[in-house]
Automatic annotation (TrEMBL):
<protein>
    <submittedName>
        <fullName>Redox protein</fullName>
    </submittedName>
</protein>
<dbReference type="InterPro" id="IPR036102">
    <property type="entry name" value="OsmC/Ohrsf"/>
</dbReference>
<dbReference type="InterPro" id="IPR003718">
    <property type="entry name" value="OsmC/Ohr_fam"/>
</dbReference>
<dbReference type="Pfam" id="PF02566">
    <property type="entry name" value="OsmC"/>
</dbReference>
<dbReference type="InterPro" id="IPR015946">
    <property type="entry name" value="KH_dom-like_a/b"/>
</dbReference>
Length: 138
């Protein structure tokens, strides 16, 4: 996996991924940025949410569950001093489907947390990670 990050101007940077997609990042105004794009740590959090949501949907689909939507909201806290690592991350899942069993979704989340989601497993080295789940009938 590769990624190239190039400084654009001010505190704006453009990341080009190995799959040839680009993502703009920018700093807060107090750090010299113009607030035109997400911060790098916001993208790290978003990537973690994407990683685990991807796992949950894939696991449920492989189990032949009729999942039609998956949303995860992440709330994170960071250390007060440098390096300002994530210290707490809470994942709130809302998974929608037809006849979805709570236990099946909980198992998919647990498999993501313990085995498949590289991002949350790495962040779990510095952060306490908690989960909550709402299953919605489609």
């Amino acid at each position: 996996m590769e990624c190239k990050v190039k400084w654009v101007d001010g505190m704006a940077f453009l990341a080009e991924t190995g799959s040839n997609h680009t993502v703009m990042m920018d700093g807060a105004p107090e750090a010299g940025g113009r607030n035109l794009a997400p911060r790098p740590m916001e993208l790290l959090l978003a990537g973690t949410g994407g990683c685990t949501a991807f796992d949950v949907v894939l696991i449920l689909k492989k189990g032949r569950h009729e999942v039609s939507d998956c949303e995860v909201t992440l709330h994170a806290e960071r250390a007060a001093t440098d390096p300002k690592v994530f210290t707490k991350i809470h994942f709130a899942f809302k998974v929608t489907g037809k006849n979805l069993k709570q236990a099946a979704v909980e198992r998919a989340i647990e498999l993501s947390k313990e085995k498949y989601c590289s991002a949350s497993i790495m962040l779990g080295k510095t952060a306490t990670i908690t989960h909550e789940l709402e299953v919605v009938e489609a």
